[in-house]
Specification:
The chain is an alpha+beta fold. The protein contains 4 helices and 5 strands, in the order αβαααββββ. A 3-stranded antiparallel β-sheet has the order 1-5-2.
Length: 163
């Protein structure tokens, strides 16, 4: 009966296939370069680059889909180039992201006044859906029912690193 799958076999601690025993895997050896001892580096996650600055804009009144379109436009670009792109982008999310990017640049200068702003780039940028609990609106529907109107709220995050 090889090849017959049963959930009982897995529940008893055996394999899913009758007559087949699974051996445990040997331990894996980690080989690679050591993690850099830089300030701000969390060794538990295996990060190798220290973040220069970040900025968050929570509960922004724009839908995540519109904000994500603009965030995808600037991810990986130099900070000065991203600001120029946002100046001439005619989209609803451009002012939100431009203001946040300017804040991240100001945070970088505040943390380290000797930093060269031209060497900074957008390393991480995300636009995530926020809660709809603050903007609850209802639309009357047929037969006495009501449905909630979805108002977009977005959490936008930007991190800058140095090249």
């Amino acid at each position: 009966m090889v090849g017959f799958a049963s959930p009982l076999g897995a529940a008893r601690g055996g394999s899913l296939l009758f007559g087949v025993t699974l051996e445990p895997r040997p331990p894996v050896e980690v080989v690679g370069a050591p993690i850099i001892d830089a300030p701000g580096v969390d060794k538990s996650h295996g990060e190798t680059v220290a973040m220069i600055s970040n900025a968050k804009a929570n509960y922004q009144r724009i839908s995540p889909r519109k904000a994500r379109m603009i965030v995808d436009l600037i991810r990986g670009r130099d900070a000065s180039e991203a600001l120029q792109i946002l100046d001439f982008t005619y989209k609803a999310g451009a002012p939100f992201v431009k203001k946040l990017l300017a804040s991240a640049l100001a945070n970088a200068q505040q943390k380290n006044p000797s930093i060269d702003v031209d060497t900074l780039y957008v390393s991480r940028a995300s636009a995530d859906k926020g809660p709809n609990s603050h903007l609850r609106r209802w639309r009357p529907r047929a037969q006495g029912r009501a449905t909630q109107i979805q108002k977009g709220v977005t959490h936008i995050n930007i991190e800058l690193d140095q090249r």
